[in-house]
Design a protein that fits this description.
With 220 residues, the chain is α/β, with parallel strands linked by helices. It has helices at residues 3-11, 18-35, 46-58, 61-75, 93-99, 112-124, 158-167, 181-190, and strands at 81-85, 104-108, 130-133, 145-150, 168-178, 199-203, 213-219. It has a seven-stranded mixed β-sheet with strand order 3-2-1-4-5-7-6. Helix 2 packs across helix 3 and helix 2 packs antiparallel against helix 5 (93-99). The longest helix has 18 residues, at 18-35.
Length: 220
């Protein structure tokens, strides 16, 4: 059990069940094991992984909860289609799928070795609400998702925003984990002829209080 994971969940006021915590810990163990032969995520130990990747993914939960509620209201659906674009080792998609077990998650990842890892984790942790789409984002069926999240995908530019919008249903949301405000302003300036309006939400990751973290929310 990683001490920082438990303390971090408490700091984020996320009241997870024992089962959810067990799944998060199982995920941490799987990543660390895979890291021995294939550098999947940058982390030396369980605590570092818990802080830099798991808590960093889960810090957006309250804000995503609002977006999910809004989409459920607008669409009349109880189960939405959420996607983690360029999922890599599974963050933020896997931690978020554990936080929102009632929603459907798709992990979009083009690299086969990573897809094999993700499939293995989904199977071992019995994540019934998650599937892997092992293909490049530009080959994904148009209007597949109600909400797209991504953490280490690409900076926003003309090509990327069009790609993301293509996969997103009309009225859906993009939620991008970003770092410094000045970099966000530069990126958004680059696409201001496509994206007229967006919301920047400041987030504080437990044990990374000195790192600037923001969630950029864009509606299609």
């Amino acid at each position: 059990m990683t001490d920082k994971l438990i303390k971090g969940l408490d700091k984020l006021q996320l009241n997870f069940s024992e089962e959810q915590i067990t799944k998060l810990e199982g995920y941490i163990n799987e990543v660390l094991e895979f890291n021995k032969t294939y550098n999947l995520m940058k982390a030396e130990n369980a605590d570092e992984l818990a802080v830099n990747h798991i808590l960093d993914s889960l810090v957006a939960v309250p804000h995503l909860k609002e977006l999910i509620s809004d989409l459920k209201l607008k669409t009349g659906k109880t189960v939405l289609s959420l996607a983690d674009i360029g999922s890599g080792g599974g963050c933020p998609g896997i931690p978020l799928s554990i936080a929102f077990p009632e929603q459907d998650f798709t992990l979009v990842e083009r690299m086969e070795k990573r897809c094999i890892f993700l499939e293995s984790v989904i199977s071992k942790l019995e994540l019934k609400n998650v599937k892997v789409l092992c293909k490049a984002a530009d080959t994904v069926e148009p209007e597949s998702f109600d909400l797209e999240v991504f953490r280490a995908f690409h900076p926003f530019d003309k090509k990327i925003i069009k790609l993301l919008f293509n996969m997103l249903k009309k009225g859906g949301y993009l939620a991008a984990y970003k770092a410094r405000e000045e970099k966000i302003l530069a990126e958004m300036n680059e696409i201001n002829f496509i994206v007229k309006d967006y919301k920047r939400i400041k987030m504080i990751v437990p044990f990374l209080e000195d790192h600037e973290r923001n969630l950029v929310v864009i509606k299609k």
